[in-house]
Recover the amino acids of this structure.
C-alpha cells in the first residue's frame, strides 16, 4: 500500500464519526443506496453498447436436451460427430476431447478404437532419446488439423479457426448462436461492401467473416438414412458441440433426480415420525396432567371422584388400589359395590 493511498484512507476514516449504534444505520443505508445506484447505472450504460453492435440476436430454439428430465439425443450426437469429422475437422480442432470420452455417448468402444487407430501420434522419447510415431489409443486427444497457430492463420488468410471443444458454451446465445451462425449466411444488404474473401452473416459481430458457408445439402451421407439438409446437419453438429462442452449433462440430471426422490421420501418419513412423536408426547402430557389431580393428600371427595372418572382406562389390577384410596378419603361417597359394577 503506497503512502499516498494510506494517507487518503486515513483522512477519509477520520471524517467518519460514529458515536453509537443508531448512527450506523444511516451510514449502511447510504452505502446500500450508492451500491444500488452504481449497479443500475452500469446496466443502463451496457444497454446502449449492445444496441450499437451490428448483430442479429439468435432466436431461442426448442432443443430436446433442455428439458428438466431430458437427455441428449445420442443418434443426433453420432450424426453430429460425423459432420464434424467430414466437414469441420479440416480447419477446426477439438484438442480437449479424447477418444475415450466418445465411448457410450457417440461411438461404441470398438468404433472408437477403430477411429483412433487411423491416426498417428508423435510419442516418446524412446530408449535412444528419439521421438517416434505410433497408432492412436483411446486415451489420445482428437488430432488438430494444423501443427501450430501460425500455420492455421497462414492457411486461412490470417484468421485463426477457434477450437470447437467448448465453443457452444463460450458464445453469447450458446447453441442457438452456433446454429444460426451455421445457417445464417445471406447476401449483404444494399450499400454494405465486403472485402475479398469475406462473407456476410448477420449473426456474426460486424456481419463479415472469412469462413465460407460450411454446410450445403447432401454434403454427407448419414448411415441411418436421415436426410442431410443444411438445417439437419447444423442441428446434429450443434448437439454434438453442446455435448462436448458439457459432457456431464446427463449424469448431473440423473444424480439430481435421485437426490430429489431421496429428499421427498426423507421428508415424508420425517413428517410421519414427527406426527407420531408429537401425538405420543401429547398423550403423555395429558395423562400426567390428569394423574396429578389424583393424589392421596386431596381433601375434597368431589375432586377425587372427578379426577378418577376422567382418567384414561387403567388396567384391571389398578381398580383395587383406586377403591382403597377412595374409601380412605370418603367411604360413603364411592361404595365398593358401585365401582365393582
Amino acid at each position: 500500500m503506497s503512502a499516498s493511498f494510506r494517507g487518503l484512507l486515513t483522512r477519509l476514516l477520520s471524517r467518519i464519526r460514529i458515536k453509537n449504534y443508531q448512527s450506523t444505520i444511516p451510514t449502511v443505508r447510504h452505502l446500500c443506496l450508492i451500491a444500488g445506484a452504481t449497479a443500475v447505472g452500469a446496466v443502463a450504460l451496457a444497454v446502449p453498447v449492445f444496441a450499437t453492435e451490428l448483430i442479429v440476436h439468435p432466436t431461442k430454439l426448442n432443443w430436446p436436451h433442455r428439458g428438466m428430465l431430458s437427455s441428449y439425443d445420442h443418434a443426433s450426437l453420432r450424426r453430429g460427430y460425423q459432420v464434424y469429422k467430414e466437414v469441420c475437422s479440416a480447419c477446426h480442432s477439438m484438442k480437449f476431447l479424447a477418444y475415450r470420452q466418445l465411448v457410450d455417448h457417440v461411438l461404441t468402444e470398438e468404433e472408437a478404437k477403430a477411429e483412433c487407430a487411423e491416426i498417428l501420434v508423435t510419442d516418446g522419447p524412446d530408449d535412444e532419446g528419439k521421438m517416434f510415431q505410433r497408432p492412436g489409443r483411446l486415451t489420445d486427444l482428437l488430432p488438430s488439423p494444423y501443427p501450430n497457430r501460425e500455420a492455421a492463420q497462414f492457411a486461412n488468410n490470417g484468421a485463426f479457426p477457434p477450437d470447437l471443444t467448448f465453443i457452444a458454451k463460450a458464445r453469447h446465445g450458446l447453441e442457438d448462436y452456433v446454429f444460426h451462425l451455421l445457417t445464417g449466411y445471406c447476401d449483404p444488404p444494399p450499400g454494405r461492401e465486403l472485402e475479398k474473401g469475406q462473407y456476410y452473416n448477420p449473426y456474426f459481430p460486424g456481419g463479415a467473416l472469412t469462413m465460407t458457408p460450411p454446410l450445403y445439402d447432401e454434403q454427407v451421407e448419414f448411415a441411418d438414412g436421415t436426410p442431410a439438409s443444411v438445417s439437419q446437419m447444423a442441428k446434429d453438429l450443434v448437439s454434438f458441440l453442446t455435448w462436448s462442452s458439457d459432457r456431464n449433462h446427463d449424469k448431473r440430471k440423473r444424480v439430481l433426480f435421485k437426490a430429489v426422490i431421496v429428499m421427498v421420501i426423507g421428508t415424508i418419513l420425517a413428517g410421519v415420525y414427527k406426527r407420531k412423536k408429537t401425538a405420543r408426547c401429547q398423550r403423555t402430557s395429558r395423562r400426567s396432567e390428569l394423574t396429578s389431580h389424583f393424589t392421596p393428600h386431596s381433601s375434597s371427595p368431589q375432586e377425587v371422584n372427578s379426577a378418577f372418572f376422567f382418567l384414561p382406562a387403567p388396567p384391571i389390577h389398578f381398580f383395587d388400589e383406586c377403591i382403597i384410596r377412595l374409601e380412605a378419603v370418603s367411604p360413603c361417597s364411592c361404595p365398593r359395590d358401585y365401582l365393582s359394577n
Q: What stands out?
A: Strands lie at 120-123, 132-135, 199-200, 208-209.
